[in-house]
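B., you asked whether I could sanity-check this one before it goes into the benchmark set. Here's the sequence:
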Amino acid sequence: MLLGAIGLWSLNLTVTRYILTHGFQPLAYSIVRYGLASLVFAAIGLAVERSLRLTPRDTLRALAAALVLFVNQIGFVYALDTTSASVIAVILAATPIFAAILGLVLRTETLHARFWLGAALSFVGVAVVAVGAGGAVAGDARGIGYGLLTAASWAVYSTLITPLMQRYSATRISATVVAGSWVPLLFVGWSQVSSQQWDLGWWVWVLLAFATLGPLVLTNVLWFRSLDKIGPSRATLAANLQPFLAAVLAVILLGERPGASLFVGGALIAVGILLARRSRRNAATPDAVPRTLST
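And here's what the prediction gave me:
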């Protein structure tokens, strides 16, 4: 189940990149995908739990998380629209660093010198990837910026959603959060929906269905059941491989040709994360970013 969730998340970047380069406008894609996912989560929640209700206070927290997820989705689709999937995959590997820094700001983390060394290595790795992006692997300043926005907003989203995960199922939370993020997406992206050409070919629609039902819906079940079976520490350690697996899949399936900078940057990010994780573990702090649903 754990490997299934990681595989689906990893494929999501390649699939989304393909869809966006074959006729779907970025916000139109997000609106259709999140609209369908909202219906699926609501149907599952009502069928299994008979209710989608949250307390008023938790509803406000869920809506705040939805706004952050809205920002995350903007960054995600525009990053993959302007930059190659392998580049964005490696940049997203730095997400745990953003989560730890946010924990420091909120005073939920105690970070030692080894963490800052790891953070510095990770950001140097991101810089190497950004500077080297180009040629066959398309990359520009906007795409890199959107990738960093995606990573940072996912860390904020995970922090907001963590308390809710202690009181509700992932399906119930997702029904509220995904629908809550769909509304502003529809508002800002309506012009793209109205101008979107819908005759995209059956393969694009098959991939959109996969991107909705697989990385966005099925992974909820697989991820949380794997957490229950093997524990969060082992599960999240394996999940850190996801961005690098996503980069490999993008190279294989999309024919992207990464330069040496992508490998060097990815190695620096990986080493930085290992140092940061060890520092946080020694400080007796949580070592994982909760994953409730994939972008």
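One thing to flag: Residues 282-292 have pLDDT under 50 and may be disordered. Otherwise nothing jumped out at me.
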